[in-house]
Amino acid sequence: MDASEKCIVFEALLCLVVLVLVTNCSASVSVSEALAKKELTVEEDDQNSLHTYIVFAEKPNGVSVQSGDLSSWYESFLPAATTTNAVGSNKHPRLVHEYQNVVIGFAAKLSGEEVKEMEKKKGFVSARKQRVFSLQTTHSPSFLGLNQNLGLWKESKLGNGVIVGLLDTGISPDHPSFSDEGVPPPPAKWKGSCEFTGAVCNNKLIGAKNFATQSPGELPFDEEGHGTHTSSTAAGNFVKGANVFGNAKGTAVGMAPYAHLAIYKVCGSLGCSESDILAALDAAVGDGVDVLSLSLGGGSAPFYADSIAIGAFAATQKGIFVSCSAGNEGPDYGTLSNEAPWILTVGASTIDRKIKAVAQLGNGQLFEGESLFQPKDFTSTLLPLVYPGANGNQSLAFCAPGALKDFDVQGKVVVCDRGGDIGRIAKGQEVKSAGGAAMILTNQKPDGYSTLADAHVLPATHVSYVAGLQIKSYYETSSAPPTATILFKGTVIGDSTAPAITSFSSRGPNLASNGILKPDIVGPGVSILAAWPFSVDNSTTSKATFNIISGTSMSCPHLSGIAALLKSSHPDWSPAAIKSAIMTTADTVNLGGRPLVDEKASPADIFATGAGHVNPSKANHPGLIYDLQPEDYIPYLCGLNYTDQQVSTIVQTSVKCSDVTIIPEGQLNYPSFSLLLGSESQTFTRTVTNVGEASSTYTVEIFAPEYTGISVNPGTITFTEVNQKAQYTIEIIPQSGAGTSGKDFSQGYVKWVSDKYSVRSQISVIYV
């Protein structure tokens, strides 16, 4: 897995430096190893140096959360000011952020010794050093079955009246994707503001604020491109004639084109600071958003130590739906971010569009690949082929910066291996700088058949691992001087293996809570066209500029926009109801009617797919839902063996677990099942709510995971009215071979079927 994929911000021709360095991954970690490997660690520092800490405090008696007295309360914890406040500011110089909507607390610059002194003060709850998180379309609406004047788009009025809040790198407000043509004024509940001057904000872009402490005092403009891309994916308006390098031509539009956008800038070139994220969540909840979209994450952490989880819980308490990216650390197991059950955790899959570039060898072999850059004047004449890494030199194999300066690639087609913490586009830049004519980028084994269409700086194609082996074999064994060229085929639609799970999409199991299956869902995240702040080929002065990039950062806003559509269509549905509708109606087969596959072209397992691939039209009419209220999570959190203080930090109210009827993780009324199964049977209860036809009967269908038996009681449920609830129990029984067969895990499902609806709940079983 290479670095440009994991940083997600593929800055087209300029993506030569990644935002966050990441290590190379290989699919070598088993499920059992993943469960055992990961604990949150905090780096030890000099106790006298200053770092940003997030501090949680008790709510003082008699103080209004909205009053200035809260500021005085926070400052009472801080050391005496030793530097001058900013001109015109009464704010303590150490104070970074004050929170009032999602938590009672603040962020401040403190030393370890100062935190120890603070712990002695009445009202102090806890403090921890902030983490820095990383950032993790013309065709995808139609691929997902969204069409004007039909189905969900018609029934939801294109997301009319719903406010989508995005935490990202900011936005390019004058892009035509953020035109308010056809968009009504925001609802009266909106309390947010726009920091842009003039008439930049409108009925589409109703709010924009900068919380990024790495760019204090600046307007929330997008310098990276990531935020503009994700915003337009979620709720961009219709823009005709969209394309990149003349490819993927069509009308660009987001999932909820008539929804409103509120932008909260929390990220920049240095990443996304946790205290800034919490401040933006605090503001968004107060502003009145309906959906929150966060294409960022920091890996697995206990929920009480994860600001996204804490802020998202407060949002859920206000009826706000929260969608987050699963992460780009796949294909290893146990690599997820954003694992809390009140968050929709979104993995990435392909769409059926490819921008093809074919590698042709001198022996006549052809290997399909992808490239966004498709030069019309590149020669079809065979050129000399060279693989600099043939001698085993890894720097040469990866086409590392500077590696080819003394290697003869002049006028040749150069084979480069993917990976080595070097961006794919950066490899092409090295080839071009050394005089190479073209590049064939070959996958390493973990990435298998997952290829991407990038804006390369020279003629190039990205081919699979298997293709790469054959190309290298030809180079090393050809009796004649090896030759090759690249044939550019342009945009091709109709890949029957789509959607497929891409290699970079992070995998479960859920390390923070084994009893909750994650990811929840997968959606389009590979080679997605959406708005971009500037032209990637410098060919136009038009503001209608687009780019094609990949990541779970792209799949997350697809689901955020779909949630906005469902919220508009069903304004009375809770966040849990919307999540249930999305999960229980998900597709588990591809366009060809076969099971979803992964980067190896093998059936994708449950820790890659979660419930499956989103089907928006079916989600609008799920039949049954598994609902949850915020207070339902408290017995679950106590069941995680969290302390009273840790649970109270999450739910922001005093909790004594000794007074709570604690439940095991798997007992939460979640739309899927996940369990560690030993020699004893396990029984769970679920409650379903009828949101389909008033008079209806559902019968259970069971596909038991291998080495288990399943009993469901009752086997038939009959409803006589809408919103009627019914309960069932499911017993999962270990059978011969469970835990001794050499398999780490297995999967299955239970499905409630009526004349009109099919409601599937996936089951993962890890043998212990």
| Rough outline | globular
Average pLDDT rating: 90
Low-confidence stretches: 1-27, 39-45
Helix count equals: 18
Q: What is the helix content?
A: 10-25%
Strands, count:
35
Cα-based radius of gyration, to the nearest Å:
26 Å
In terms of DSSP E residues, the strand content is 25-35%
Strands in their spatial order, largest beta sheet: 7-10-6-13-15-16-24
> How far is it from the N-terminal to the C-terminal residue, by CA?
30 Å
Summarize the main sheet. Answer: 7 strands, parallel
Helix/strand/pairing category? alpha/beta
Summarize the structure.
The chain is α/β, with parallel strands linked by helices and 768 residues long.
Structural overview:
By secondary structure, the protein is α/β, with parallel strands linked by helices. The protein is 19% helix and 26% strand. The chain has 18 helices and 35 strands. The protein has a 7-stranded parallel beta sheet, with helices on both faces. It has a 7-stranded mixed beta sheet with strand order 18-17-23-19-20-21-22, sandwiched between helices. A 5-stranded mixed beta sheet has the order 28-35-34-30-32, with no helix packed on it. Helix 10 links the parallel strand 19 (383-386) and strand 20. Residues 1-27 and 39-45 have low confidence and may be disordered.
